[in-house]
Structures are given as C-alpha cells and as structure tokens.
What does this fold into?
Amino acid sequence: MTSLQGLETTHDSDRKWMQKALALADRARQSDEVPVGAILVKDETIIGQGWNQPIGQHDPTCHAEIVALREAGRNLLNYRLPDTTLYVTLEPCAMCAGALIHARVKRVVFGAYDPRTGAAGSVFPLLGTDRLNHRVEIYGGVLEAECGTLLTDFFKNKRKTEND
It folds into this structure.
C-alpha cells in the first residue's frame, strides 16, 4: 500500500530501520505493553529510540515515538530535530503527531495503519496537513504485515488471558 499522501516509494534503507523498530516493539511486548517501537535516524545514525512504556512508567505520554524524540533531543541538545526520519511500527496518534511536528521531523515511515487513532491520515490528517507550520513527509505500510501481526497477536493473547 502506498502512503496516505500518495508518495509511492520509500528509501532502500527504510525496511532495514523498520526491522530495528520491530525489535523494539518486541521489547514492549515482553513488558506486556502494546508492542510499538520507534527509531529516529539522522544521517543513517540512530539518534533516538523507544518502545511503548506508559504502563511501566506510569506515564500516558510514554509512547514509543515520544521516548525516541526525548532521547534524540537529549543526544543532540536540541528540541528541534530537522532532517530526521522516524521509523515507527504503528501509525502515530494525534499526541505523537503533534510532537513530531513541533520537533520538525522531516519524514515519518510507519508500518501498520491505525484505523482508530491514526494521525497520518487514517483518522486525522495531522502530519500531512498544510494548515500547520511544518509538514511531515509520510510513508505508510512499510513491513505492514509484520507490524500488524505483532499487534494482532498481542491483543489476541491479552483477550485469551483475560477470558481464562
């Protein structure tokens, strides 16, 4: 599937970075958190990474994207992160999209689409809108099957455990 903005190609390295984000999503799963992982890359170097941790950290803002942005800001000593690409296994929500816009992230590459809360166009078109001061390039569906399966299996297991 092409991105929600109609961008038809991704860079060759996008699959490689998404594989690394999937490994971080698995860390979230191992901690019984919703399995989402994110990596922020600048000049082919990881400058921030994270996985969902809101339950363990008792912090509703501890989404994978926010964790990666915080680490990148500390590493670069700047809250602006231009010329960066965020790789995330699930389409960002509105909170994360707002943070990505404020950080001036250039590109967002995501795996699974989120038909409930996606803010890259599935539900809300925040990342690609021209009504804000910064527009983010969006590429969706990179390793979509792998990212979606991780999430689907996680929630199937949660429901099974709750019903046992």
Remarks:
- Residues 144-163 form the longest helix (20 residues).
- Helices lie at 14-30, 54-57, 64-76, 94-103, 144-163.
- The chain has five helices and five strands.
- Residues 4 and 121 are 6 Å apart (CA to CA).
